[in-house]
Amino acid sequence: MALFYKPLSLLFSVLGGLIAGALFKQVWKVVAGEDDAPDADDQDYTWRQVLVAAMVQGAIFGLVKAAVQRAAAHGVRKTTGRWPGDDRRKTLESSRS
């Protein structure tokens, strides 16, 4: 199961990162009215602007990452009938007993 899920998980993570980056760019355009978010080393922006941009970016990346991972897990369960990580969880539970 892990042999099947790991490569797909990596692929979905990369795609999720691309989606999150594009989504952040669009959100930033709407929120700040600028094409690009401030870089941490850009002296033309204040601490507040840089940290707010980082916070929004982190929230969007976290949300997209969770959504992509959850959707991939549901897809694996629908395809194989098993939830990813069940084998690992059962192994851990049996080793504790």
Q: How would you sum up this structure, described in words?
A:
This protein is mostly helical. The protein has a domain of 46 residues. Helices cover 78% and strands 0% of the residues. The protein contains three helices and no strands. Helix 1 runs antiparallel to helix 2. It starts with a helix and ends with a helix. The mean pLDDT is 86.
Reported for the largest beta sheet, the result is:
none
**Proportion of residues in helical segments:** over 70%
Gross morphology is elongated
Strand content: under 5%
Question: Kindly, what is the distance between the CA atoms of the first and last residues, rounded to a whole number of angstroms?
Answer: 24 Å
Region (Disordered): 76-97
Biased composition (Basic and acidic residues): 84-97
InterPro entries: DUF4235 (IPR025329)
Transmembrane segments: 48-68
